[in-house]
Design brief:
The protein has 12 helices and 9 strands. It is about 45% helix and about 15% strand. By secondary structure, the chain is an alpha/beta fold.
Amino acid sequence: MSRVDDGTERGNDAVDEPGWDVDPNDESGAAVVAAVGRQIKTWREAAGLRAGELGALLGYGEDLIYKVEGGSRIPRPEFIDAVDVAVGAEGKLAAMKPDIAEVRYPKKIRELAKLEAAAVELSAYGNHNIHGLLQTEEYARALFGMRRPAFSHDDVERLVAARMARQSIFGRSPAPELSFVQEEVTLRRHLGGRMVWRRQLEHLLEVSELRHVEIQVMPTSRDEHAGMGGEMQVLKFKDGSAVGRSEGDFGSRPVSDPKHLRIVELRCGIIRAQALNPRESRAFIEQVLGET
């Protein structure tokens, strides 16, 4: 047996169930998880249950109960639902799931998602793989799965879920204007295998049919190319402000200074002019798909 900070005993043989560890550098996320954990502990104690007893009722390890209550583990939605029923919270704990659903994603991804959700216009150039907003779930899972050092299975699923959640931007109303330029090689690289790759190309064609989305292809045969410095992105907001990022420039950090933004916007504009137009690009993608 071991003792936690409040002096209560717990067993050492408990096994953690699926969930996510809290990033110690994510102060806002950690605060939300800690608040939910305190609520769970309060309801458990009010129900007259010890941590081990609640764990036994739910089929989870006792150690997980302590970690969730202590704010060091992000619980999955099904865990919160099960606890809500077990302690008789009548939906009060389950109502906190949206807060947990947001902070379970890495901080950088949450910040990017907030910018994308507020943007009225987005322009992006991708030279290494398909842009995250255009990826299928299978393609995204393949990308994260091939990273080295390898991510754990839970981390892969967490990152895939975060990437898919960002794609709610396509269903927003009013719809933002979205413009993507993809390097030809990103269409020809069979990441994830032939079937995953084919489905990704089909998805690009489907997305390109949306009236507020333009997808262009930058052919490898181009003699001039303004994007040789790497991928870039510009997001514009309804108040007239904007944020840009260009790989290799300005420390690869997002910038909002007008002088820096002008450089990124200039490059994005030239890249769009150098690429195939949307109709030509769609025909090109169909051609690549047909070659399979």
